């Protein structure tokens, strides 16, 4: 399940779909863009509206990213308008009756949390992030696994209190090229791959114009996406440059182009960057979207796999600097190869299908605790006393099934404690006497069972390095 806000989320879903074909234990796969089955108005506001803001009010996009970044800032049921538009999605899930559901956008992830807590869905669910930095909107109250792009995301989420057995750093899922990988010809001038993105951003015109002033030898392939007007403008611009430039519209050859290029010039979207890193292709970053793309760029520059150009007037000079310094391009290419995670999609499937069968439920009280701690610049694993977080662990499977404050555990112990100081969660004989949160917890965890023996572990495990 994805949402077509830009092309990256759907590309990640397609990569997971492709990885399913390599497994013998998957009988059938369905890919669903939740916006495509929503109302036209809802689809336009979320899909097109976002890019209108990116072009016209980028500061507002950055503000929205920052204001929604704190963990569990968005809690509770999805808003009524989203719920109405989710009806076709819920119907599709009920018809297909999936064993597992992978979400590559936070909208379906939030919806699935609601369905798990209501007992509507009985499937393993995965949240797969599509940028290098973790963003708080992806956190929900119920899921089976969260897959993040890098180890720092794993450290962040476990420091917030999420159990380590429910978070994996796999990288961002990307599709694998069909056929043999292209080989770069070291005897030819470096090839630049200049991308305007799937929608064809006009910034590519100024990029190409500045490269025409470069002193270094190079060739360039310019991909204009679906913007035919941009393609025609660039073709006219480079008409006097001989065969140095090749100008394309939308193309299905991107994997081959990534494999043959020596340097990528474009925006640091999560999927674009992941594809470049997997191909060992360093990046010159231009025109990043405030928020997630700026942070993606920060990470790539930390790794030595990218440089950023903040002014259109210096793009040509910046690329020249990379190409003219002896060994610099080769060092950046090696850094890109180290950063790449080409097997991320397969790792997501392995982690989900081989992972816990019961979901993790983060109670409302635990969500409030995590948010309050982060707003005070604490991490939840530093908390002590009644507000400290406690994990409920499935005794038979050994997996964490709930995260709750110690004071909330006391209420459960009054009803479900056993003589050996354990807990056995049971379906209530008088469910109306149970609190709403308790009913949600039992509904999500028990599923077809009548009882679940658990043990309490807490406070949450302190910070430690990610496995491996």
Automatic annotation (TrEMBL):
What residues does the Glycosyl transferase family domain cover? 221-338
Q: Which UniProt keywords apply?
A: Glycosyltransferase, Transferase
Task: Write one Gene Ontology MF term.
Answer: hexosyltransferase activity
- Ranges for domain Diacylglycerol glucosyltransferase N-terminal come to 9-174
Query: Could you name the Gene Ontology cellular component terms for this entry?
Result: membrane
Uppermost EC category: transferase
Instruction: Give the matching InterPro entries.
Output: Diacylglyc_glucosyltr_N, Glyco_trans_1, Glycosyltransf_28_UgtP
Q: What EC number(s) does the entry state?
A: 2.4.1.315
Under the heading Pfam families, the entry gives: Glycos_transf_1, MGDG_synth
Q: Which GO terms describe its biological process?
A: glycolipid biosynthetic process
State the family it belongs to: Belongs to the glycosyltransferase 28 family.
The protein's name is Processive 1,2-diacylglycerol beta-glucosyltransferase
Q: Whose protein is this, by species?
A: Arthrobacter bambusae
